[in-house]
Design brief:
By secondary structure, the chain is mainly alpha-helical. The protein has a domain at 10-99. The protein contains six helices and four strands, in the order αββααααββα. The strands form two sheets. A two-stranded antiparallel ribbon has the order 1-2. The chain is elongated, with a radius of gyration of 24 Å.
Length: 137
């Protein structure tokens, strides 16, 4: 069974940005994805937020994020240069949510407008009937 598109990393419009290298560490390459995760951000939400911002504002915001990384071997001007290089990988504007079959946008959350499952209703009715038979014998 294939993953639904919203869960498939291979088709994310943010992959170029998220998997871009910030720097090399002793343990390997520090990517945007790993840096945002270390800082407690949801990488895809942060990428969408930055993509919705004007480029200069996104660069300034992401430079502050980079400066917040522990053990960074960079100065303030370095963080701006790094952020400029990385923000260039973002698409212009966030990607619209993935439509559901009924046309309503969805980001993978539960659809609260769905009726209760018929099987759940039949199961509840069966439990009530069994209790009624056992209690009124």
């Amino acid at each position: 069974m294939a993953l639904r598109p919203e869960y498939s990393l291979g088709h994310s419009e943010y992959n170029d940005f998220l998997f871009a290298s910030i720097c090399e560490e002793d343990t390997g390459t520090l990517t945007v994805l790993s840096a945002l995760t270390r800082l407690g951000f949801d990488p895809w939400q942060e990428a969408a937020r930055l993509a919705d911002m004007p480029r200069n504002a996104a660069i300034r915001s992401f430079a502050v994020t980079i400066a917040g990384l522990p053990r960074g071997d960079w100065t303030s001007s370095d963080t701006t240069a790094i952020a400029t290089r990385l923000v260039a990988w973002l698409p212009a504007g966030s990607i619209p949510p993935i439509p559901t079959l009924d046309g309503a946008p969805s980001r993978g959350g539960k659809d609260k407008s769905r009726p209760v499952s018929p099987w759940l209703m039949w199961g509840a009715l069966a439990v009530v009937l069994i209790l009624a038979v056992l209690l009124y014998r």
